Amino acid sequence: MITITSNQYTARAWFKSRKSINLVIVFVGFAALVFFLQTLMYPLIADVIALGIAYIVFFHILAKRAIAITCPHCNGYIETNTPWRCGNPNCQQNNERVDDFPFVYHCEHCGVEPKAYQCHHNQCGKIIFLSKDKLTTLCATLIRSGGKSAPPPRKNPAADKIVQENEAIRETEYKLRKAKLDLELKGIAEKLEPIKVKSKRERMRTGLLNRTEIDDEVKRMKADADKEFANDEPGRLQRYKDIEDLAREEL
Ligand SMILES: [Zn+2]
Ligand SMILES: [Zn+2]
Fold first, then answer.
1. Residues whose Cβ atom is located within 5 A of ion ligand 1
2. Do 135 and 13 have their domain in common?
3. Is residue 120 located within the same domain as residue 225?
4. Which pLDDT band holds residue 54 (cuts at 50, 70, 90)?
5. pTM listed for this prediction
6. Is 167 domain-assigned?
């Protein structure tokens, strides 16, 4: 495919006048071809052959001719029929029919003309202005693989800082709310904690057992004292006395 390389500011004008220029090229070529072929064959056959060649050249070669620009920052070569994403905030759609809608023309979906293109060469990514008013809004970007485009250029560092600060505030608010809720939850959980089933000994101390239960518990406590004071007779007797006192209080 034939490509012409143009200045970044004149690329749009070149694209718009592309059809007229192509027509002139084809017409001049056609006339020269007819003149040449007629010296070799019947004029009618020469006309038909020249017409066929002119058709192919006009519709299949020149109409698809891409215009290229050179990045003023990295000197990278950029074909304007690279698939691109519209920079209009209300559109942001991908433009894939780039023979008819290159980024130097306008968006196929919303009709907006990009005022700039973000260089897609690695290590560059700078803005290439397509008109001398140097507007960074409506900046076209390359469609990256997976349908995602390159991030839009940073236009306003102060605005970015505000966005970051707002995010930090939101995060702090979230943490504060969470801490308050956790505290409330803890309080509720404490209130709802089931009353633990008390052991028989605790119940005996708090006077909740009946006679049989007291006798059983006395036996068990004495058995425990036998083990605990196996080699301490006075200790064992003292513990027996305490147990009996406790049991007596219960009755
Ligand atoms: Zn560049
Ligand atoms: Zn658009």
1. 71, 73-74, 76, 119, 121, 124
2. yes
3. no
4. very high
5. 0.51
6. yes
